[in-house]
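Model the whole thing, not chain by chain.
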Amino acid sequence: MADWLSQNGLLLGLAALDGLSSAAAIFMVAVGLNLVFGVLRILNIAHGSLYAIGGYAAASLGLFLTARGLPAWMSLPALVVAAALVGVLLGPLIERLLLRRVEGQEPVLQLLVTFALFMVLEDLQKLVWGVQPVVSDTPVRLLGNVEVPFGADTIPFTAYQLFVLPGIALLTLVGLAWFLRRTLAGRMIVAVTEDREAARAMGIDAAKVTLLCFTAGAALAALGGALASPTASLVPGVGAQTIVLSFAVVATAGLGRVEGAAVTALLIGLGRAFAVYFEPELEVVVPYIIMVLVLLVRPQGLFGTPETRRI
Amino acid sequence: MSRTTEILLALAAAALVLLLAWAVPWLRFVLTIALAKGLAVLGILLLLRAGQVSFGHALFLAFAAYAVAFGASTIPEALILLPLAAIGAALLGLVIGLFVVRYREIFFGMLNLALSMVFYSLLEKFYAITHGTDGIRLPPITFAGQTLGSEAQGWAMLVLALVLALGFGALVRTYLASPMGQALAGIKTREARLEFMGASGRSVLLAAYVLSALMAGAGGAVLAMTSRHVTPALAYWTASGELVFIAILGGAGSVFGPFLGAVAYELTRVYAAALVADAWQMILGMVLLLVILFAPGGLWGMGRALLARRRAA
Amino acid sequence: MVAEIVPPRASSQPDNASQLHSVTRRAALLGAAGIGSLALAGRAAQAQPAKPAEIKVGIATYLSGPASVFGVPGRQAAEMLFDELNEAGGIGGVKLRPIFVDEGPGVDHFVGEYRRLVQSENVNLIFAGISSADCLACAPLSDEMKRPTLLWDCGTQRVFEDGKYEYAFRPQANATPEVLSALLYLLRAKPDFRSIAVVNQDYAWGRDSWDIFRTGLQTLKPGVRVAAELFPRFGATDFSTEITRLLALRPDVVLSTTWGGDLDAFIRQSNDRRLFERSTFVLPLAESSLERVGKSLPAGHIIGARGDHWFLHPNPADPALLARFTENYRKRFNAYPIYSTHHMAQAVFAMKAAYEKALAAKGGGWPTDAELAAAFRGLEFPSLTGRIRIREDGQGLEDQLIGTTVNTDKYPFPVMTDMVVFPADTVTAPVGQKSLDWLKTLKPEMVQAMPQPVAFKP
């Protein structure tokens, strides 16, 4: 063991760096879904589509800025602006037109509404952005690289990957935690998450909270896509692949727990990175292995509380 | 609806399927696939009675399909392969079921999804054996010892699928009416009450789960012997989503629902693909949205409502 | 554009589709009647053929999912070439009509679509498809339904090495020459490399192509160390961990047969982190990504195009043909044609040549399906860049072009220099031999025997 460590210690360090940035990306993919699931109790399959649309919108806005010859630094706030736009435009639309109409119906119907929406959005996205991969990498170029020492060697990392992604993920985590605990709107959301009926009885406008929450979730999904857009190439089918990962995170984390999503993302991110270094064939199944292991030990997820049994 | 009416209706529907397959040769294949998926959806329906949605049942379908593909080189006989593959799927269902019936709702759905995705990854990983996404082509197989021409084989598979559909349909109908079936509904409403009465929610769900895996396995075997080519895509999560889609499209209220839904789904997909090759997905999504918003009982529920209205008038 | 694709004839189709939503008895009857009328249009496969009113071609391509980056350009090329053919009077005076189907939903759906194309649309030929799984599934089906089928883009060498078909043909090369030529080029360009790492997509093509490359490498240059074998998820968007590991390992060569959005992302992220400075990349499919990645792909790396598909081919057989195609395609679709458009052109040209051959053999009489199929065997036809011959086993013999990237002021993306055009028969496994067995019999001399590289002429 000691031998192995001394040989691979440096590599472990590199893997940890990779794992951290990849965890940040995974957290951003899943946190919106987690929030929506917590409040609406709907597993939103269209989350993957919102992620893809957020990415496409951000790339389009970035390309537009570059084409207009606007300063490169604007491409960074453009990511957030694009995501917010997608959230504010699509979130209320979906919530009002579709989800509200199946409120209180069987969970499977609610789930399938989002599945149907996913199918529609997949094709719509293709009609708008076509099938050729889209990317706008100004933000990565803008920030340049950081050299990380590795023995006698140095390994270049992009500052975007090392600082911006984890930074925004951390901001989101802290911001959300603060919002949910310290603001009135946030506490209303928590109240609805914990007990919808009781919250209603206390005079909380659950409909408003739901709308707010879904919009926020949509914007976060879009932000996940937007943050990935400077390095990833967006192609048809991105949504379908995103959704599986975010589902695994939400189920592992426990219902609607933001901190749970963060810890799960960290587990998966690090697990994947170590897999790539030491057992590459396992990389693809890491999220599922972690999920199954966690649920074996804690059936309600990492941060979930066991549901009280209704009689 | 009386028992006799249901039997007559089932036979009439089977005759209609045969008639349609005879009148329109290329539909024979589509209808066989639809019935095969209908079998798997019958299992989804069973779990839906307990309020549980499996987002990974394509696992059992794909498992049986691959079992047939691998088994066909040693035992090239459809009538042996089919029960073997289905029982294999049921055994897998038992093993997985022992684990997943401890969970409810989202966790139940997600664990099923995760396990089917693991199976999907395994099919890719063991490339040397499975040929990954290229898939496996089935060698020629006999039917009751007879080597059939492709035409006759197509008919044999359709009839086999029909027989299975009628048989399993009747079985599930009986099962749901039995105490075991009634107990499933108990899981949905108040599981604790069920247990106060001395029934174990887990064993009730496990029995249904194994039966559903068996049916998905039978469907997968028919599917493999019909399309004669299996790929890992059979186990991808969207394939499982499709099964749940069909369950709701057809209507979860009756054993007719899965087959009605599967036929409607396959036909919609084929016609949508023929009309607008690059937006069939959107059309399917719209159809599903309309059904959920305006006819949550599915096609079956819609048909019954229409019938009831006509009787009332 | 949709109007062109939807066959105007089938006026009963919309009724059928819409009536699926309701199940009243009347609607069901109407629907059945409508479907029945479609079936009546059927014809027996071997009936004595009269000259048809039009030649219908079913074309399976990806219109959804990640592979639509090839599928949609393929369809665009088909639309353009069918238009051009029809303007010139069609084939034997008969106009042509393409009917497109999406491969996206998977094999079991595709097999149904194949039957529909034959039995309901009565297509005369089928072009299928991009997915190797679809080709493996439809080659036996073509024999069963006796409809000539061109495997227009799929790469798996297994189709004709594991099976014999009367009606299926491939008017282009397969994975073996595509990968082997890149290996030969690498051995010549960088003879002293000692270690290699592979980053391929985790699906059949990624595994198959690595098998071919590794087998060839072990035969021609044993002792090269394989530093890492990485198979990221198909559709992966983040390669940063893989890249870090490669940066630390410093292999001399990085091989990746990745394509589409995955390849774009891999190239960009490798460039951002200067991996291109540490290792020489071999990217046999990079031609299809050049215009999108632009100068993120630096000079000095080895790229290919699954054939000799290159709009700046150093010595095309018919320079005017290539220039006209490139120009027309650019004008109509605002992009440089990539290899899948060349593959589509080859299918169209093979079809035209086979019809002409069969017509001539029959003294102008219209060929049956079997006669048309027979015409493909041994057929020689022009591609956009050279000539292709379909061997007796149905496999096409197509030259392979590999080059090294170079940046010029003329294009906003790298182009190829030091181009080598490998003659098809030197890099393709002979009839009746399995690729992996044949690769083990290669001799190191073949590296020396390869043609001289041709530099890019500005």
